[in-house]
Amino acid sequence: MNLEINNLTNEKIEESMIKRVVDATLKKLDEEDAIVSITLIDNKRIHEINREYRNVDRETDVISFAFLEDETDPDMDIVNLGEIYISLEKAHSQAEEYGHSFERELSFLVVHGLLHLLGYDHMTKEEEKEMFSLQDEILSSLNINR
After folding, report:
1. Which of 30, 42, 106, 137 is the most buried (most CB within 10 A)?
2. What is the Cα–Cα distance from 66 to 78, expressed in whole angstroms?
3. Closest CA relative to residue 95, chosen from 108, 84, 85, 86
4. pTM
């Protein structure tokens, strides 16, 4: 797995925690030979991205951009899954709102973003149940609980 973490905020983040969550998620879904980019940003920047690419004029917590299959390097058998953008400000406010740690919220957002890159969604009740169950299973396996 090739993980690139770009922290565009002034906040110090334990990147080893993010790597552990990414590793566990990709292992669970048998996608260990993958490239993923995670960019940590603020509410202002994620609002701009949400407006520009999704036509939604508000901030959000996580946005994933899945790459197409042609981003795969056939010689190396590595799949470039895509990019994940996470608002650290939103992660802090949601952790407080939901009554759990910032680390748990950030881990949840990393798993959520990765699952979107891997084709999971939550547009229907069935999809939501499958995706959220998988998120809980991955986080529980890492002892990251509410």
Report:
1. 106
2. 14
3. 108
4. 0.92
Nearest to 30 by CA among 94, 77, 68: 77
- Report the C-alpha gap between 31 and 145 in whole angstroms: 24
CA distance 117 to 104: 20
- Closest to 138 in 3D by CA, of 40, 22, 5: 22
Cβ atoms of 71 and 80 closer than 8 Å? yes
5-42 tens-digit pLDDT: 999 999 999 999 999 999 999 999 999 889 999 999 99
Q: What's the pLDDT tens digit per position in 105-125?
A: 999 999 999 999 999 999 999
Tokens of 105: 């919220």
In angstroms, the CA 39 to CA 62 distance is: 10
* Residue-range domain boundaries for the chain: 2-141
CA 102 to CA 133: how far, in whole Å? 21
What backbone torsions phi and psi does residue 50 show, to the nearest 5 degrees? Answer: -60, -40
What is residue 79's three-state secondary structure?
A: strand
pLDDT of res. 78: 79
